[in-house]
Amino acid sequence: MPQSSVKRFVHSIMYTISIILTLCLLSCTTPEAQSSPSNFGLVVHGGAGTILKKNMTQEKEAAYRAKMEEALKKGYEILNNGGSSLDAVEATIHILEDAPLFNAGKGAVFTSEETNELDASIMDGATLNAGAVAGVKHIKNPITAARLVMENSPHVMMSGSGAEEFARQNGVEMVDPDYFRTERRLKQLQRAKEKESSQGAIDAPSEMNNFKFGTVGVAALDKNGNLAAGTSTGGMTNKRYGRIGDSPVIGAGTYADNNTCAVSSTGHGEYFIRSVVAYDIAALMAYKGMSLEEAANHVVNEKLVEREGSGGIIAIDKDGNVAMPFNTPGMYRGFVKSDGKIVVKIYKD
Amino acid sequence: MPQSSVKRFVHSIMYTISIILTLCLLSCTTPEAQSSPSNFGLVVHGGAGTILKKNMTQEKEAAYRAKMEEALKKGYEILNNGGSSLDAVEATIHILEDAPLFNAGKGAVFTSEETNELDASIMDGATLNAGAVAGVKHIKNPITAARLVMENSPHVMMSGSGAEEFARQNGVEMVDPDYFRTERRLKQLQRAKEKESSQGAIDAPSEMNNFKFGTVGVAALDKNGNLAAGTSTGGMTNKRYGRIGDSPVIGAGTYADNNTCAVSSTGHGEYFIRSVVAYDIAALMAYKGMSLEEAANHVVNEKLVEREGSGGIIAIDKDGNVAMPFNTPGMYRGFVKSDGKIVVKIYKD
């Protein structure tokens, strides 16, 4: 090899190394560059399941869209005015809990004993503090009770009448159980019981599909870079034995950490608990360097699909990116970012 | 550069590459080589906390050691005879639940209403199936109820009287609540209440230290390479409001996956829920390639210490390695491997 060739060889190696170094630096700085103090956002779900356009009336679809938009507007208003992600999550979930359209608060599904038993949880990504209530029957807005467990007690999770006693002592609005009673959900229970008595116990995932969806959840990033997530549900139609799903389980139904993302889940809760879905998305970002989109898709469309766990999640990361993957025919979902543009979707694109 | 130098340069690069490739191949095959069908083991805890030699009588220490040894022997016998890790976990926990020494089953701590409310969970690493009960008052061995929730229901988590109804229907041994009543735990409750009334609400971690430990847990690997873990507890002395700790929460108190490890936690449950402790150890192994020892130490002695969460975990991985890290003065713990040698420890080494 003549000396000039060696020189060219060394130069080309130096050039390649400099390109690689530049690419490394770029990939390391890109996420930081995306983040800015005014970069905020909020993402919402109203449940995943067999939601098909052919089964939907125009009026029903319009009602869902209007309520999702109202919730997103409320959350945007709070964040845009400099409010905290926790306040935005709580206020947005209130709107969905108060609407009989969703399986949370008013409109919750019935247990096999014709009662409504509600679960909710919330997590603060800044402190990793969290609160949850399970199996409450008299609390108008379970998400507020969950937040008070987080802020006014040393505990994370309270259940049943004990949780209600705590809520009452902390000034939460209590209602008569009849408040939660809707004709639509009562009919769903009757249909579930008829199916059960004609087919035996409902335990095959396919049979459960129609009886378990409609949970609501919100994840938000505020102007201070704080993430928060919350989830609220009536659980599963015809549920019994004090069944607790994933919604009040931190790590499964709800998770938030300022270093990664905020997540709320909806779907077949048992599968979400066993796969620690919400935390798994954060772990894939933290430990494998995945983007939110990659991590959320991997968990919902690969891991959960392999394990036959149907449902979806909504999430927002520390840079304001949102993800809304689901492996069911539809999911009520939407988001709003700093620009104020509200996006609501129901079916697969 | 003369041509001979270029040749030597190219040769030395080829040599370096071949060494790197060999090292890579070796590091990939080593874990497989460690594993063998007859490589089994079981690891047990009886709670972490302020356990100091100076506060322990010889008789008390001997009683704890004897019971831990009895439990480990039982688990070893099952595994050595080709039994499943699930059977070993359940039978070993039975011995600890039946012993008044530990805060699980008989010997459980009292709630503020002078009742005993028990929680337990179990997970099968082969199927990722799991079961848990929370807040039960009449079930002699909550770990057995948790296993039946896993095996005989489509649910993962049941609570309160609903969980008891399910247990009764599935033939679980029920007892009068007086069965759980021990004078020692009643005195602990009285002391906790006296402290509370003289100091106000107990919510500082330091004040809670003495009232919350003693949970039992087991993780096992059987001859077929199947992992399982289980945890059982009476919760926290003077607990109220239907408080649920980490023990019945899959991902926090218990986790098992044949691809990584089986883990059972003990400590200040609220911190363990928020840090998703048991699953986090598995995630660090799966996503960061850490060894069990590295992952367990990172979570217990770094993450939890930073977050002021006191306690410990026991774990066994798919190759039969065990880890028993804790960040408290002591933890009742022990393990046995294929060689049948039983090791029991209480204090820091």
Structural features, described:
The structure is a homodimer of 349-residue chains. The first copy, chain A, has helices at residues 3-34, 58-80, 85-98, 142-152, 160-169, 183-199, 205-208, 269-274, 277-288, 292-306; strands spanning 41-49, 118-124, 129-136, 157-159, 216-221, 227-233, 243-244, 254-256, 261-267, 311-317, 322-323, 330-337, 342-347. Chain A is globular, with a radius of gyration of 22 Å. Chain A has an eight-stranded mixed beta sheet. A four-stranded antiparallel beta sheet of chain A has the order 8-9-10-11. The N and C termini of chain A lie far apart (59 Å). Chain A folds into two domains: 3-32; 39-347, Glutamine Phosphoribosylpyrophosphate, subunit 1, domain 1 (4-Layer Sandwich), CATH 3.60.20. With 349 residues, the first copy, chain A, is an alpha+beta fold. In chain A, helix 2 runs antiparallel to helix 3 and helix 9 (277-288) packs across helix 10 (292-306). The interface between A and B is large, with 49 and 49 residues.
Question: Care to give the gist of this entry?
Answer:
The structure is a homodimer of 349-residue chains. The first copy, chain A, is α+β, with helices and mostly antiparallel strands and 349 residues long.
